[in-house]
Amino acid sequence: MNRNVKTALWLMLVVLLPLSGRAEVERNALRNGIVRYASDHFGALANSPLESGILYDLVAPLSGIERFDGGLAAEPTTFAAWAQVAHELRRASLASSALPDRSVLRALRQEAQRTDGHPLIFLAYDYLRVIDGVDRDKLIEMQGNKVIGLRTEWLTERRVAAMTSLHDWTYHGSSVRFDLDLREGYFSNLAPAEKVEVDFDDGAGYRDITGSAEVVVRYAATGEKTLAARLTLTSGEVLVARTRFDVRSLDAPPPSATWSLTASHSVSGPNATGEAYILYAPGHTMLERPVVLVEGLDLDNSRNWDELYDLMNQELMIESLLELGFDAVVLNYGNSTVHVQNNAFLVQELIEELNSATGGVYPLVIVGTSLGGLATRYALTYMEANSLPHNVSRFLSVDSPQNGANIPVGIQHWADFFAGESDEAAASRDALNTPAARQMLLYHFGSSGGGTANADPMFTAFQAELAGLGDYPELPRIVSISNGSSTMQNSGFLPGAQIIRWVYDSFFVDIRGNVWAVSNSANTRVLQGEINVIWPLPDSYRDVFIQPCLSWDNAPGGTTPTMLELAAVPAPYGDIEALYPSHCFIPSISALDLNVTDPFFNIAGAPNLYALTPFDSLYFPNANQEHVQITPENADWFISEIVGPLEAPQVTIAASVDSVILNWESVFGANSYRVYTSSDGAIWPLSYATTPASTWSAAAGDSISFFRVVAVRE
């Protein structure tokens, strides 16, 4: 386990112990009726009537904690499920808790991802639930938000045991390093774990990894694995915990080199940092012809080399570039959610480093995906405005939010409303409030109160700053690809349609989490939120209405399956239902930066399309595609734009009495050559011979006097 991960876990590990130091008579008295005590939150453990210190009914139970009871039939967790259980136990505790809060847990997760480690963490807790059929009016007595009285005879004890890996996937399944340290990764109010055995689902069965251990596991096949643990406590009890682990690849290729980068300046906060991962073309031992691939928005900063390679090698894009003789350079931000300008300055730093390394012999080609296209646009425009040479000949913008991105404002309000109860919702809400999200979103929940949908002021300020710099670079050829429909096709639903349904009613908790798309013609409720938990705890309600506005939610554009992802979260109380899977994320008119305001503008039918865009060339499909999806069709377009016009081969001819031999130097970017022959240099036939080689021969004949060789990519 990485030293930083160990240190952080050790600082968190103050194990929540059962009540001690209290006479048995006092303990029994506490269990026989209402007990009063002071509390900083819901209560204080030193005076708690609950031996476990946790009254689970104080929070909305969203995790389905009953599934993870430590029994033989316990279900496997995911990292998200483990984090939600920990979140609920921490909030339901009547004292300070040893369980890490969301920010610490996610920082540990990111550290594990960056170091390609897989630390296992466990929790094992007793907690109490209110029994069915009790009079809620007489169960809890509160003053404000503090529990001052509780009828403990109406409670029943439950148990939870759960395991997860801080980094729950791998691209190196042939050799995976799992780490365990019970002193640092075991959170419990039970007896200590005396023995831990784990079956890694690799066919080797259970292994004893008690104490502190590093285990290297070798998988023979990709796919989802189910890890199972047996925890033997000092009390003799045995708890079972399971978790899912995704083997995405057995042996992803490592980069040839990795550069650590730090931008030289920023507009706010620390200078941006990141890594440039480099793959040399076959036969190269140093950078010669770099193609730079700039990553997009990574809200939880979980992408590193393996994830970026997998994303950008769709349709074997990276492999095709390597075969052509390009070196692939993939830029990974240290934090993609900071100001776009800050990561643009990181792009600038990489450009300068590349030109220094190569001597600027060959012009650079930059491909910016999503946010990467916006950051690259700013970097190149900034460099030209400040007379800084960049040596970039081509800039490709891939489904980038050049004029804004969209996440339904109703879903944004959903995340904000449930942030107190849901760990994932809180993470989403926090991500929406980061500078990059505020600079890109066409509607932002923080600025969309009072019935009007608005962008955050940072959106307008950023667009104005770009315009002040010159808007776009002038020196390179700039091209754009959209994954959105060019034929006005919507994203599968109508304006104002309900897109999420979540309704649950029970004795202990009522939940509403309904979401609608905005409408361009009617005042529309976009969120109905309700969390009604056990009396007398305060209930939460929120209804958000939005006046008629541009209907970005269902507009043509590169889509993202936010609703489907919400529905995939197991909801133990009711069912989160995605009424439609995806919504518009990058509107087509934004990706192509068309000077129009209608989200449903007829792109394919526009007679003067290039008069509406700053780009030199555009690619757009008929139907909507998933955001930054590479298809066989647009992959060929990409490669042709990256390679550019092929040079004409320089041909030499050798002739003899009975044959003619043509020779030429290989042309960079070509994989085939067409040889035309003619008896008249002014008239060339449509037919030709094709060869992948750089030589061609034919029998000599009086009718052939002229030859022409054309380099092509086929």
Keywords summarizing the entry:
714 residues; alpha/beta; Immunoglobulin-like; eight-stranded mixed β-sheet; six-stranded mixed β-sheet; 23% helix; 28% strand
Structure description:
The chain is of the alpha/beta class and 714 residues long. The protein has four domains: 245 residues, Sandwich (Immunoglobulin-like), CATH 2.60.40; 142 residues, Rossmann fold (3-Layer(aba) Sandwich), CATH 3.40.50; 219 residues, no CATH class; 62 residues. The chain is 23% helix and 28% strand. The strands form eight sheets. Strands 14-15-17-16-18-19-20-29 form an eight-stranded mixed β-sheet, sandwiched between helices. Strands 1, 6, 9, 10, 12 and 13 form a six-stranded mixed β-sheet that branches. Strands 21, 22, 23, 24, 25 and 27 form a six-stranded antiparallel β-sheet that branches. α8 crosses α9 and α10 packs across α11. The two termini are 49 Å apart. The N terminus is likely disordered.
